[in-house]
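Fold this: SIR2 family protein
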Amino acid sequence: MRRRGQAKVYETAAQGLARSDVDELAAAIRSRNAILFVGAGVSMSVGLPSWATLVRHMADELRLPQETLEGITYQTLAEYHRLQAGSIGPLRSWMDRQWHVSRDKVRDSRLHNLIVELDFPIIYTTNYDRNLEVAFQLHGQDYDRITNARDIAAAREAVTQIVKFHGDFDDDASLVLAETDYFSRLSFEAPLDVKFRADALGRTILFIGYSMSDINIRLLLHRLWQSWAQSGHERDRPPSFVFMSPSNPIQEAVLGHWGLRVLNGAGDDPEAALGNFLETLLERVRAT
């Protein structure tokens, strides 16, 4: 174990991560007191397109020369696409088709199988696709999908809640895709934001599949840290973790300052490193 600034950083050895921290995380999962937050890296593991593919599609459809894209984010381009098309519907339809993978691919996905087996009571995801839901269906596991305030009110306590934090393809109004959508969420007062604050304050959180570059996620983490810092009870905050591979000392220092422990995987393959970590975690959850 070593420290970089205020961040606790743990690197995988040949047989796994530092036992004390994985055991602490496993204990929270075992006691149903942990939340999983799933990013794009998990969806890309089953062949979903990258954001670069989305940008190329929008640019081609709008017949934009390459030079006009310099310094333009995909959120700004999606905003322009919505203005030109009159709604997000056409872009959402294309994404829904491109972001679809076969049930066989999900069935064979090491990461999706491990996520289901870990049996988190609440899973948040910024992914629009339905692969998590399909994985639960393939395992015969019940779940509630949550995309809006109505879903929050109807959610059951006894089954896993899959919270689509940036929306779902079945509900255009729920999508956080274009620039205006992101700006609106910066207020951190949408129903799903309020739910996350309530869920997260008393639980351990594990973030996987993130490069941690999403400004909304970073603001969310900062606000959570700020809430505890201002409460006067920061020492009572449950531990939270981010799995990152490869390691990044800048991210580790900033996230560590916000009270997240950064777990780093070994090797050059981020997907394999995440799978190895989840397998180790599952072993510890099942240990008696």
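Residues 2-48+103-286 form a domain with the Rossmann fold fold (CATH 3.40.50.1220). The mean pLDDT is 88.
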